[in-house]
Amino acid sequence: MHRFMETVNQYLKGVALQQLTAEQKVRLKNNYNCKLYLFEYSLNANGDLVVFTSKSNYTNLLYYMGFDSANNDSIKLKIELADDVMVIYNINHERVAGLAQKLDLVS
Hints:
- The chain has four helices and five strands.
- Helix content is 35%, strand content 23%.
- The longest helix is centred in the first third of the chain and has 11 residues, at 2-12.
- It has a five-stranded antiparallel sheet, sandwiched between helices.
- A hairpin with a 2-residue loop joins β4 (75-81) and β5 (84-89).
């Protein structure tokens, strides 16, 4: 348990989550069903993408990024608690880097 807590602390140390701006909401809008993917996000100290959202929005975000629930090669850490989901994505994954770019976290 101690090792688990140290790992979580390492991934989240210094993370300050941000909310989507109005411009980013337009950029992330899904043209198919016009649903916005509402989540909070940041980069951690390792440069990986941190996302915090609800379980239902997490599923939508996976769809938006082109992932399915079985494809988890981009995930470094995922924690679910009640209806909340926190995920650390590997920024070196092409689709994760693309989302980080749309969020103005990387250029």
